[in-house]
Design goal:
By secondary structure, this protein is α+β, with helices and mostly antiparallel strands. It folds into 2 domains: 3-203, Bira Bifunctional Protein, Domain 2 (BirA Bifunctional Protein, domain 2), CATH 3.30.930.10; 208-256, SH3 type barrels (Roll), CATH 2.30.30. It has helices at 3-10, 12-17, 29-36, 88-102, 151-157, 165-168, 172-193, 199-204; strands at 18-26, 43-51, 54-55, 61-62, 69-78, 108-110, 114-117, 120-131, 137-146, 212-217, 220-230, 236-240, 243-247, 253-256. Strand 11 and strand 12 form a beta hairpin. It binds adenosine-5'-triphosphate. Adenosine-5'-triphosphate binds next to strand 4, strand 8 and strand 9.
Amino acid sequence: MNGAAIARICGPAFNAVADIEVVAETGSTNADLLARSAHQARNTVLIAERQNAGRGRAGRSWLSAEGGSLTFSVAWQFHCPLHALAGLPLAVGVALAETLASLSVNVQLKWPNDLLKDGAKLAGVLIETRSAPDGAVWAVIGIGLNLHLPDELEQRIGRPAASAPWLAAMDRDALMAALLSNLAASLDQFGQLGFAAFSARWNRLHAHQGSMVQIVDGGVTVAEGIAAGVDDSGALLLDSAAGRIAIVAGDVSLRAQA
Ligand code: ATP
């Protein structure tokens, strides 16, 4: 991939607000951008051709194969309190899903941070934050998206995963530019309007709407009920035996009940 070519396709409005860098290899693009955030002035996209220590939530790993995945992070500055970013992983999911749909790849969203294709994980989003000295907040938004899924990688993941051969056949720079342009527009919209601008769109793409699900924290089921979409803060609404409850993401995971 070529940062200058991606920037050219993204166009001047994108280039006015963010820089794009491509590296051949790194441990974690999120770790790299977080380390820079103390002295970072501009929004920055860091794309790794190969990422060998990709991170998921709660210390989990995001695995990828060179040439078979997109692994990148976007450091974006928000001028709002930290708690206002609670719905950001979901808004990023909406932005990615809408871009993929425009490229004829239909995905659904699994609360809080995954994109599913045919019920298996195609992409994951990990957001880590840092406060900036002027009261702003840096959100470092890590995205891993499977294009091909070699058998060896699927075995290492150890659970169902999806790939998108149609996207793998696209020009990589054009694919990255499509994802980044829409993402930047969505981050701008999120900064102005918050998650309320995304909740109905998220609910239209909800993989588990109306299904019985369990919420698991460290292997322990902490809630169960019928998934009823998300509210304007990004909390998952569950119709449980005790009535409707709202689950905030933290480190909990959703499991569809067999
Ligand atoms: P859960 O999937 O348990 O609900 P999560 O969605 O928060 O948790 P993340 O922390 O976002 O999971 O992602 C890490 C998990 O994703 C890993 O534990 C692994 O199961 C799975 N995984 C890792 N690499 C890939 C990949 N390339 N494609 C699909 N799934 C992957």
